[in-house]
Known about the structure:
- By secondary structure, this protein is α/β, with parallel strands linked by helices.
- It is 42% helix and 12% strand.
- It folds into 2 domains: 6-44 and 293-395, Aspartate Aminotransferase, domain 1, CATH 3.90.1150; 62-288, Type I PLP-dependent aspartate aminotransferase-like (Major domain) (Aspartate Aminotransferase, domain 2, 3-Layer(aba) Sandwich), CATH 3.40.640.
- It binds pyridoxal-5'-phosphate.
- Pyridoxal-5'-phosphate (PLP) binds next to helix 5.
- InterPro entries: Aminotransferase_I/II_large, AspAT/PAT-like, NHTrfase_class1_PyrdxlP-BS, PyrdxlP-dep_Trfase, PyrdxlP-dep_Trfase_major, PyrdxlP-dep_Trfase_small.
- Belongs to the class-I pyridoxal-phosphate-dependent aminotransferase family.
- Its EC number is 2.6.1.-.
Amino acid sequence: PLDINAVARSIKPSATLAISARAGELRAAGRKVFNFSAGEPDFAPPAAVAASVTRRLADAPVGYAPVPGLPQLRDAAAAELSAYHGVEITRDQLIVSCGAKHSLANLFMVTLDPGDEVVIAAPYWVSYPEMVRLGGGTSKIVSCPRAQGFKLTPAQLREAVGPKTKYLLLNSPSNPTGVAYTTAELRALAEVLAERAPQTWILTDDIYRKLTYGQPSVSVVRALAGIPGIEDQIVIVDGVSKSHAMTGWRIGFLAAPVPVAKAVTAIQGQTTSGASTPAQWAALAAVTEASAKAEVEVMRERFTERRAAMIKGLRAAGAELVEPDGAFYVFPDFSALCGEGARFADDLALAGFLLEDKGLATVPGTAFGAPGHLRLSFACSMDDIEAGMELLRQALASSA
Ligand code: PLP
């Protein structure tokens, strides 16, 4: 047999994709399935995106893009990030990759040495620990339960950091909880890391930063300004996938110190080459066109209404939850229904019952390092949210 190597054998398949596949099978068999498991917007991208690509396709052949990205896109993304973060980010620091996921994987590949640790708060996005492992590092998972708003505390961070800590990974607003850190919370965490300067860095995954429903997102760079030892030690991952409904275009951005950006360029040069050229044109339109910004705002307003409906429906179904500040997920706590003597053995059994018996696709919290919870996405129609939440209420009310 053609053997699979040890690293690949250690990688867990994505739980999210497994649920989607099962939901697809049920649908193909003629069942109505409410899909609350999606990790992507259900909107079309801004009109300027497709228009720009169509125009350019007619004008010129689609050649290779430069490995670190089209200069215009690097400049535009760097300018946008500079404005948001209030510091100058130059083209040399900005690398375009095939999605934020690729940006993260590249960063881990070029900066982690065996034994290096990445502190990750649980609940966490499913791919983080797997990507850290692929990069040769070790994840230090810190459990942050609902009672503390799913957020890492300075005391927990102090406990978790050590001589091997390379990064604190932040994802605010978060997948799967939607919670976002305030300036005061970020500064309190950074004070702990500053004690470990210069070896420890912050990696901020800002993929959901434009999707917030109360206060706008806090720039980690702005929040930490003036804290010596950490204010200059921030690596940023950003992109257009979630904010601009462009998941399938596969464009992400990394803003890092120039030597890191060069190392990532070398890796991309020997693996993927530059990201897809038409997708980079598309991202350029997304980042620069005023009409695209306006359309993103419309999507955000639609998400705002859906968020409210889902929170209401989940509460009516008896769920305990922390209201999400951003992204498009709610992460209700169903631990009262799970465990010994309870109706379900665990969240996997609960999610299985909801999908198989009721046609409600959710993702079990275990996948995010938080058993007893489910992740529900409100990136679906209002009708589905209303009907689906009523079904959930009935399913959990009946003792069957
Ligand atoms: N970061 C987080 C927290 C995510 O939830 C996702 C997508 O699910 C990504 C990054 C990946 O983004 P992209 O599609 O740009 O690779």
